[in-house]
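Step 1: inspect the first sequence and its tokens.
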Amino acid sequence: MNESQLLYAAPMPMSTSTIAAARPSRAADRFTATSALRAHWPEYLMESAELGLFMVSACFFTTLLEYPASPVRHMLPNAFLRHALSGLAMALTLLLLIHSAWGKRSGAHMNPSMTLMFLRLGKMETWDGFFYVVFQFAGGLSGVVFSSLVIGRALAHPSVNFAATQPGIWGTGAAFVAELLISFLLATTVLAASNHKNLSRFTPYFAATLVATYITFEARFSGMSMNPARTLGSAIPAHAFQALWIYFTAPPLAMLIAAEAYLRVRSARAVYCAKLNHHNAERCIFRCRYMELQGN
């Protein structure tokens, strides 16, 4: 166990199993795929389940608001209002997931782009980053498949289309630029808030506010993804692969650029952990210095 993990865990009694689970980060050369899975498989499953639940929510609310036979769709003919309500619903979903026991423990990335950013910033072991990404993709697809089984044919209607994210009114070029901008702003906001002593506990609310704003105003340009796993989860059952490259390139690129900018404006020492919600007593598997940020 490294010094930062000891600082974080100090207020709580440490069991032998807890110490063993955190030990791989002490010696990176012994932190293999097998040891990573053995020590951190609960966090990997939590990441998968969190994105899966996010996609269930996305599929449900998209069907409720956009399916032509939905009574809610008839009650709300204004497209802008429906986008705003969808944004609010997904922001609340995000907040609930980040504040859930699973979100508090896994860090609630739910996004390969976010995970790659924290990996670049040195907050994650390589194998942890790898398995986070794999399980995020599995969770995104599982959530849409489950939603399809529950909702049925309405989810496949062209107006719903499995809640797929696709380029909007200005085509693929505008969608790429839009995804680049919104992903960069989200990543920069998360880094600035989560590494600020007084603002860190409000990081989930900043992120949720951006998600609601993006869905309301930006979705018409790119579909508002910022997340390759979220997009692929819908694209597979929707057979919507024509612009998949946008969502596999722009969000990761933007968040890596945000990481590089943060390192140059601040420093690697100014990145304290990889959790979006660290104001809790759940286990932390990252290279954590959160208690240092809090001055303890």
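Step 2: inspect the second sequence and its tokens, then contrast the two.
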Amino acid sequence: MMNKDDEIAVFRYGIIAPVIHDDAINRSNYFRELAKKEFNYPGEEKPIRFRYRTFLKWLHLYRKHGYDGLKPSTRNDKGKSRKISGSQKERIKNLCSEIDFRTVSNLYRYLVGEGIIQAESFTEATLRNFMKANDIRFKPEGKKPRKAFEVPHINMLWTADIMYGPYIKSGKKKMRSYLFAIIDDHSRLITAASFYNSDGSLSLAKTLREAISVYGLPQRFYCDNGKVFSSGYLNMLCAKLGIALIHSKPYDSPSRGKIERFFRTVRDMFLPMLFKCSELSFESINEKFKTWIMEQYNMNIHRGIDDTPMDRYLHDMENVKIRTLTEQQAEYYFYNTIYRTVKNDGTVTVNNILYEAPAKYTGRKIEIRFPLDKPDDLRLFEDDKQCAVLKKLDKHLNSELKIRYSKEDENV
């Protein structure tokens, strides 16, 4: 009686034998036809298919190692990660022995944020498998005494955080998505949440602007110590808006329990729905997600408050004076800033597009601002005041017109 390894080797040999012993058979056509069929493979309960390249691999192994080459091989590095370098391993082990990250997700976010690993080539699953195989545990700490906490009114405290989302198609590539979300502490209402292809300050600012445009300004904004939440941009924005920016203690995710609980609900209830979708884009996933937030999460009874987040928010509005921003004010506060030097021909380049700048700024470095949702609406600022709106260069029009300078330009 054959063991399983021999059964597999015999099966594989039966597939490649015709190619080995009959020169008249066209190897490529033969294997491509087999790739369309299903086979009862040893050890498998259901018939399975194989790729064309799999058959080529079996043929190569047989010609190189004979019959034994067709037996299934066991990796000699099983239990070890092939994506973690020696220095990374030591760094991870040392961090876990010094700090109680509490969850692998917290550790993963820290490693990515500090640049120790790259999210594109190093997944959270890789980290989990590495820690499990090497029996790495976090430094034990005594449990901190905690009490249930809730502010008395809406907009007194908003909590923000980031969750690593699924890979989403963007053009011809698939990119890691990042879910930015903001929750109102009193009502548990999600004031804004969206998936982005970047975990930077711009994504956070877009989420905060969306929340403020609908629900007004919060008194306090609570988040962790990640780079995006401790950036100078966010500190300046909150200072201008009169919002107190508060950071939790490092790696203390339980202090942000409400937003963490929301992320768990997203993983359990929303993300599984996406498996039915053949292809996802950032537009489609955000459209589905916002519908789910408005029609399900914000409208369902929350056990912690025995009410729906939306109803609880609306009921408390009469007890609170909500500060709002006009659209013009929002554009003034929420903008992105870039700096460019004006060339000798009076132009600047932004995203590979030429824009015209006033002649008096030729050779000077200028500050350009644009609204978060309008990257083509470029405005020149000087001393925090708007001086001009930059227009795309029209070379054909410029060739037909004489250059005219204003008196102001001539005096410069």
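Step 3: confirm your contrast with the notes below.
The chain has a mean pLDDT of 83. The CA atoms of residues 63 and 69 lie 8 Å apart.
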